Amino acid sequence: MNTNIHSVFKLMVFIEDSNLRSCVSSTNVENIEDVTNLNCDEQNIESIAGIEQFTKLTNLSLNKTKL
User: Fold this and answer.
1) What's this model's pTM, rounded to 2 decimal places?
2) Which superkingdom does the taxonomy of this entry point to (predicted)?
3) Nearest residue to 40 (alpha-carbon basis) of 19, 57, 54
4) Less Cβ crowding at N or C end of the chain, within 10 Å?
């Protein structure tokens, strides 16, 4: 099973970094189209691969991560 696929959303989303997946999960948003803001500060995120799928995202905060 590919644990990089995040299925909280109605559409399958590929998110490489497990800490970024956790941050996205914490939003409790069901539709990827509804994600406009992500605050993932201090989450030890090392990759944002997959973030391009969030086409409505207008604010992304990644302060104090490993990027």
Assistant:
1) 0.78
2) Bacteria
3) 19
4) N
